[in-house]
């Protein structure tokens, strides 16, 4: 039995009926009509949307890999940019993918993500950003200069040191970030997937492909090779691992480096611009964070990640931002390349594109009261403690901003830590106010700027000292 769903024109199916950039809205409409599993076709390709958190977990976490929907479909970037899927993000879920993901996470934590020295470097990058935006007078666009800081944070993760903006390693990251984010845009990537030969022709697609490959070469020459010789960050940590895990090739390390640039800058930009935007909208939330910050950290000491566990309200704001704005409203594409799968009595054909609809999960009004309101307190118990850790709470089953299962996000810890530092380092000494001229755009998440990652609309604010 096939899952129910909207029909459509022969072959084209629903291919012309919605924009890939706001697929989550269309998927959510269809869920109302067809239920928890919806299937439709796009240019002959079956597409399945899972609208219920338990189903998403079941499909994406199944222990038996044959019945888990954890592969990625063939893709242009995986094939031609990552050199035949020598990476994690675009690779099917074979044992090599699972091992590379496991080792990368291990090395990420060992060399960096949880080390105090690295946190100090991350914190200084963010403090520099805060000093820069708070020095500006009048109405400022605080997101404009964020991208440089995000690339510098990747520099810290990869090399274990701060890179200046004229360092060739930093420039290699920033250039790859620009080209990679352009080629990964769904509308661009879709064209290249259907017509991969466009990469050989002059014109927009051929130029973009050439530029991306040049950036890849620079990344290899100016960062990866240098880190291979000496270093103390994630990249040199992966090279060290080659001694015990001899299946790790140099090309895989380059693939991982490319993956983490593209998965981390756009998403981090979404969550940081998103939380600053909401704070500008809600001064009372800023005040409560400030009070908590002063009680735990004081006005002089620099906030550190270790303070986070003592600041439940601040953590609740971070969780609520992730729920409310659901920056990745649908998961990356999943598929099962080897077998057909039975899910809740429905037949999911091999090779179907499968998505988890995280947007719907996070705004389901049967679980979240007033889902379109920004209410950090929903994550707090009556005594003010954080509810997030309590798995018996039904709503926590409905919180999955980083996906679930074998393909879930590798940057969860990094993201929580960074959001905490961006929020506290700014609010300890400053207040975010609406612009003097003009109004703030709406804070309703349905008005976020669509794309692979939802972004806050362009906004101006004033930063004033406390
Ligand atoms: C900033 C907020 C972030 C959010 C909301 C987010 C969310 C997600 C989601 C929803 C997925 C897809 C899961 C799936 O396909 O089922 C994902 C995958 C991934 N994320 Fe993140 N992410 C964030 C930041 C990061 C960062 C900072 C990194 C790296 C340091 C990262 C690395 C990855 C990687 C490598 C994957 C692919 C894993 C795989 O294919 O197995 N993410 N993320």
UniProtKB/TrEMBL annotation:
Heme binds at residue 409. SUPFAM superfamilies: Cytochrome P450. One of its GO terms (molecular function) is iron ion binding. Its cofactor is heme. Pfam families: p450 (PF00067). Coiled coil: none annotated. Belongs to the cytochrome P450 family. This is Cytochrome P450. It comes from Dreissena polymorpha (Zebra mussel).
């Amino acid at each position: 039995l096939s899952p129910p769903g909207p029909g459509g024109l022969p072959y084209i199916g629903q291919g012309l009926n919605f924009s890939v950039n706001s697929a989550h809205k269309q998927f959510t409409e269809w869920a109302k009509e067809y239920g928890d599993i919806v299937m439709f076709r796009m240019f002959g390709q079956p597409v399945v949307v899972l609208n219920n958190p338990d189903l998403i977990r079941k499909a994406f976490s199944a222990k038996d890999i044959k019945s888990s929907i954890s592969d990625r479909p063939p893709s242009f970037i995986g094939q031609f940019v990552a050199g035949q899927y020598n990476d994690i993000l675009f690779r099917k879920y074979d044992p090599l993918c699972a091992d590379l993901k496991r080792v990368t996470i291990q090395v990420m934590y060992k060399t960096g993500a949880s080390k105090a020295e690295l946190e100090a470097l991350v914190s200084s990058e963010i403090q520099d950003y805060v000093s820069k935006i708070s020095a500006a007078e009048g109405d400022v666009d605080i997101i404009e200069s964020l991208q440089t800081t995000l690339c510098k944070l990747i520099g810290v993760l990869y090399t274990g040191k701060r890179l200046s903006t004229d360092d060739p390693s930093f420039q290699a990251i920033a250039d790859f970030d620009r080209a990679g984010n352009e080629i990964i845009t769904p509308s661009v990537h879709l064209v290249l997937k259907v017509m991969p030969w466009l990469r050989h022709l002059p014109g927009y697609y051929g130029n973009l492909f050439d530029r991306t490959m040049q950036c890849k070469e620079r990344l290899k020459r100016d960062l990866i090779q240098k880190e291979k010789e000496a270093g103390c960050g994630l990249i040199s940590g992966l090279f060290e691992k080659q001694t015990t895990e001899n299946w790790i090739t140099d090309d895989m390390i380059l693939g991982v480096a490319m993956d983490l640039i593209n998965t981390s800058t756009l998403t981090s930009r979404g969550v940081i611009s998103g939380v600053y935007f909401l704070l500008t909208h809600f001064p009372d939330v800023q005040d409560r964070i400030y009070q908590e910050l002063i009680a735990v950290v004081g006005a002089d000491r620099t906030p550190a990640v270790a303070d986070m566990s003592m600041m439940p309200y601040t953590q609740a704001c971070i969780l609520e931002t992730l729920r409310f704005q659901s920056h990745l409203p649908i998961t990356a594409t999943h598929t099962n390349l080897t077998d057909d799968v039975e899910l809740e009595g429905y037949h999911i054909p091999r090779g179907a594109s499968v998505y988890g609809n995280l947007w719907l999960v996070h705004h389901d009004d049967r679980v979240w009261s007033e889902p379109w309101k920004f209410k950090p307190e929903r994550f707090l118990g009556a005594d003010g403690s954080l509810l997030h850790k309590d798995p018996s709470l039904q709503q926590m089953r409905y919180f999955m901003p980083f996906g679930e299962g074998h393909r879930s996000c590798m940057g969860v810890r990094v993201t929580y830590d960074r959001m905490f530092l961006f929020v506290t380092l700014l609010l300890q000494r400053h207040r975010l106010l609406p612009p003097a001229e003009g109004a703030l755009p709406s804070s309703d998440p349905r008005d976020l700027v669509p794309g692979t990652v939802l972004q806050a609309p362009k906004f101006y604010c004033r930063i004033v000292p406390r």
